[in-house]
């Protein structure tokens, strides 16, 4: 094989966004080694600039002619572009809320950014991984970096405890996932590329074997851990409570998006013969996640633990689109994760700001906050109401699209359960909003009575303010102006070749067909 042919098959330009993140990581690492502690004044902004540059590179790679790279190991199709963009953008917003938080914890900011960028790289590669070895390496890059981030504030015993629990449970889930993947490799006759695994299984007449069923169960267990689906959620509440708040903000969006990207790509390509079986398993996971996440969240007194159980419930909602298996279902998943990025990170920005100013995250201490901090109250209220699905915010339209796709696919029981648990979730979200807004001055909590004077000129506070304002605007407008986002989600599915053979058409039902690029935008009324 000559060098020109090898370069063509490698197609290394496909990973230009990841290369930009890698260069940024090296700049932050080497710059900190050379300059020292004074580098904290610029490394965060360099990291954000690199992530935004990566997102721009993803934009120019949309709908490229040849998305396959590294001899079939990486697929830079439109589906991967959307998920890689979600992960990069979540990392950028996480950095905005991390600057002051990490500096006040007494730890090094540059080292935190290096680990966070490594986790971002792992998530981005996992979103496009098309081969078993690359899937495992990307998954481990994301997981090990997440363990380090969870225990980064090493002077905090809660952070150490959270990191240890996360490591032990995560290592177990990784071992289970690896065993399932090894079975898949053996049953397919030694194939590692996802597109060849199903063919190898058919040729070996292993489509209905017990080994393939065991492999499926183990793979789903690994994916369930990554997306915080019940009953693989045991790590979530403790890690969310003990880990640094910016870290759990990234885990709740970036890690979850990478997990769903892996689920779509691996299950639809490697297990097409068992599609009904894995949909049945995910139905059980979705039911457990929606019920457990929303019901247990009602009893929480810590804001971070409440958001942990909320994250479990949100995973259950997103799984409705995966179970539907239609073009509308996958597009609804992408759309919901896009809007979930803004509303969830916006909520965590507010939690970070409140904890920096008061030193607590107890829900009862938010009482009367609107009298002292109107901006924080407004943003947190909008983000929580959007997570609850209150119209006309982004979360309402995200859930409408998910439920409609599930209804089209005949998942009537799952959709009805989703509607009921959504009503339950509204209670614990509105409880926080009511406590912040409705309380009389004499009912103000002691913490809010002693609330420090708001000063955005302090070091590192301006980026946090930018993150709060951007999340507030995006969450408010993403619902009203949802057509561009939904068109993006639809096109990402319609232009992804690997999904076309397994997409189930819904005859006689209203279709969420992708909007042609040359046609005028579809109005919200026409769509719903």
UniProtKB/TrEMBL annotation:
Where does this polypeptide localize?
Cellular thylakoid membrane; Endomembrane system; Membrane
Q: Where are the transmembrane segments?
A: 15-35, 42-61, 81-102, 109-126, 132-152, 164-187, 207-227, 247-268, 280-299, 306-324, 330-354, 375-397, 409-430, 466-486
Q: Which residues form a coiled coil?
A: none
Keyword field: Membrane, NAD, NADP, Oxidoreductase, Plastoquinone, Quinone, Thylakoid, Translocase, Transmembrane, Transmembrane helix, Transport
**Enzyme nomenclature, EC number:** 7.1.1.-
> Which GO molecular function terms does the record list?
NADH dehydrogenase (ubiquinone) activity; oxidoreductase activity, acting on NAD(P)H, quinone or similar compound as acceptor; quinone binding
* All copies of domain NADH:quinone oxidoreductase/Mrp antiporter transmembrane, residue ranges: 129-424
Q: Which family does it belong to?
A: Belongs to the complex I subunit 2 family.
What this chain does, per the entry, is described as:
NDH-1 shuttles electrons from NAD(P)H, via FMN and iron-sulfur (Fe-S) centers, to quinones in the respiratory chain. The immediate electron acceptor for the enzyme in this species is believed to be plastoquinone. Couples the redox reaction to proton translocation (for every two electrons transferred, four hydrogen ions are translocated across the cytoplasmic membrane), and thus conserves the redox energy in a proton gradient. NDH-1 shuttles electrons from an unknown electron donor, via FMN and iron-sulfur (Fe-S) centers, to quinones in the respiratory and/or the photosynthetic chain. The immediate electron acceptor for the enzyme in this species is believed to be plastoquinone. Couples the redox reaction to proton translocation, and thus conserves the redox energy in a proton gradient. Cyanobacterial NDH-1 also plays a role in inorganic carbon-concentration.
Can you say what this protein is called?
Answer: NAD(P)H-quinone oxidoreductase subunit 2
């Amino acid at each position: 094989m000559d060098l020109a042919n090898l370069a063509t098959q490698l197609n290394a330009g496909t990973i230009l966004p990841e290369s930009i993140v890698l260069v940024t990581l090296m700049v932050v690492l080497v710059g900190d080694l050379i300059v020292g502690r004074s580098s904290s004044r610029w490394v965060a902004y360099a990291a954000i600039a690199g992530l935004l540059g990566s997102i721009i590179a993803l934009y120019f790679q949309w709908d490229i002619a040849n998305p396959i790279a590294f001899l079939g190991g990486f697929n830079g199709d439109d589906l991967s572009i959307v998920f890689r963009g979600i992960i990069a953008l979540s990392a950028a917003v996480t950095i905005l809320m991390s600057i002051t938080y990490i500096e006040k914890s007494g730890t090094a900011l540059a080292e935190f950014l290096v680990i966070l960028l490594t986790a971002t790289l792992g998530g981005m590669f996992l979103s496009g991984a098309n081969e078993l070895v690359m899937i495992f390496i990307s998954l481990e890059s994301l997981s090990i970096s997440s363990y380090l981030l969870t225990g980064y504030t090493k002077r905090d015993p809660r952070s150490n405890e959270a990191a240890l629990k996360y490591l032990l449970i995560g290592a177990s889930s990784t071992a289970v996932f690896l065993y399932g993947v090894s079975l898949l490799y053996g049953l397919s006759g030694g194939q590692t590329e996802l597109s060849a695994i199903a063919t190898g299984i058919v040729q070996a007449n292993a489509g209905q074997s017990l080994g393939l069923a065991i492999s499926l169960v183990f793979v789903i267990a690994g994916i369930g851990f990554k997306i915080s689906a019940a009953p693989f959620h045991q790590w979530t509440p403790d890690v969310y409570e003990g880990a640094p708040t910016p870290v759990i903000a990234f885990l709740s969006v970036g890690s979850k998006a990478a997990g769903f990207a892996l689920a779509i790509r691996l299950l639809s390509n490697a297990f097409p013969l068992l599609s009904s079986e894995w949909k049945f398993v995910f139905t059980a996971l979705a039911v457990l996640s929606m019920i457990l996440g929303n019901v247990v969240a009602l009893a929480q007194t810590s804001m971070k633990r409440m958001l942990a159980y909320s994250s479990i419930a949100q995973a259950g909602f997103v799984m409705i689109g995966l179970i539907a298996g239609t073009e509308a279902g996958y597009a609804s998943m992408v759309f919901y994760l896009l809007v979930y990025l803004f509303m969830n990170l916006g909520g965590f920005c507010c939690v970070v700001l409140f904890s920096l100013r008061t030193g607590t995250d107890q829900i009862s201490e938010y009482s009367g906050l609107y009298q002292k901090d109107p901006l924080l109250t407004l943003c947190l209220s909008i983000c929580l109401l959007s997570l609850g699905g209150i119209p006309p915010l982004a979360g309402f339209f995200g859930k409408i699209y998910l439920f409609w796709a599930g209804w089209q696919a005949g998942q009537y029981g799952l959709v009805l359960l989703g509607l009921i648990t959504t009503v339950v979730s509204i209670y614990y979200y509105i409880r926080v909003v009511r406590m912040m807004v409705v309380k009389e001055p004499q009912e103000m909590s002691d913490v809010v009575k002693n609330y420090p004077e708001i000063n955005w000129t302090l070091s590192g506070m301006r980026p946090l303010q930018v993150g709060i304002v951007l999340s507030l605007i995006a969450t408010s407008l993403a619902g009203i102006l949802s057509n561009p986002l939904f068109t993006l989600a639809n096109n990402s599915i319609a232009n992804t070749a690997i999904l076309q053979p397994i997409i189930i058409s819904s005859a006689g039902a209203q279709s969420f067909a992708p909007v042609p690029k040359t046609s005028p935008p579809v109005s919200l009324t026409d769509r719903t």
